[in-house]
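Reviewers of the previous submission asked for a worked example of the structure-prediction workflow described in the proposal, so we include one complete record here. The input consisted solely of the amino acid sequence. No template or homolog information was supplied to the procedure at any stage.
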Amino acid sequence: MKDLNELVSTEDQDFFHTYKRLKVVIERGEGCYLYTDKGEKILDMFGGLAVNVLGYNHPKINSAIEEQVKRYIHISNLFYQEKQIAFADKILQLTGFSKVFFSNSGTESVEAAIKLIRKFFLGSNKKTLISFTGSFHGRTIGALSLTARKKYRDQFEPLMPGVKHLEFNSLSDLEHHIDDNTAGVFVECIQGEGGVNIASNEFIAKINELKEKFGFIVVADEIQSGVGRTGKMHGFEHFGLDADIVALAKGIGGGLPLGAILGNDRVKDVFTVGEHGSTFGGNPVAAACGLVIYTELENGLMERVNQLGNYLMEMLNEMKAKFPDKIKDVRGKGLMIGIELNSPGQPFVEMMMQKSVLVNCTNDNVIRLLPPYVIEENDIDAFIERFSDCLLN
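From that input alone, the workflow returned the following structure tokens.
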């Protein structure tokens, strides 16, 4: 393996500079820990950005990959594929939705949802798509057009027309801007990239009320908050959102690229043969891993998320009470938690890395926690102890 300096030099020469890399070289992972080439053991409280829900080197994931690789890694979606179909059946069984389409990522799932809405209302006056401030829906042009955050958008204009960004949790904005021309409303009930912002019950109730009145399609973006992350299968279930489409990705492939949209009876027959597709969507190796994830969710994993999430939230609220000058708010559900600081968060990210803990800062001052579901209470205790030390500085 090349050392860090060699990797930095080669990366700088070869790559478009779209990522700010951490200055460590990861050699392997085990459970919720990463191990560097220097032998350092890092507690991962970020989980590959909500992807590695079963952590690293999980035996059931490894076995599923090995078994499927020995059969075939990829065949065209023109073939029936046993693992892909079994995975689809499992998702629909556990979620109650009617149909699924597999993609490779979250942004592709959002694009599929946009196309489905366009097709559904083809020939009508319903053209407008609605999203909300603080949202993040992806980086392709359609998904980016919905993403209401200037730092991601401004340098890529002009974007897709016909999109309105309303104020998150504003009932008056909903009432004033949603009308007969509204085709779709895209909502993250728990905004991840925006700072783990949580929708109010009144806000979601108003969306449901206006949907009943105007007949638009509701898309629940569960790319970060789905797959049991919040202690329910989807984050929107905490709020009673009447979703027609669910956009999924990140955790559903157990670490392999995979995304999906789920559709209810209302939209299940919109797409016909040839109107949408994906060469790699539902890849059989990724689908085999997804089947493991959802089987584990069915067999008690979400109960574990609730238990550990409650424990972590309890510890964090105690920390907030201890450091009211440092911590403004603690919010989230399950193992999706944001710690809003009264100062910029990046220095804390760097201090925590010095203490061998990986966390993330989003929206400038929110420490975002998305740990693997296999984390233990003693790991949470270790995180709390080290974060407390950083707050004392």
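The mean pLDDT is 97. We consider this example representative of the routine output the project will generate in years two and three.
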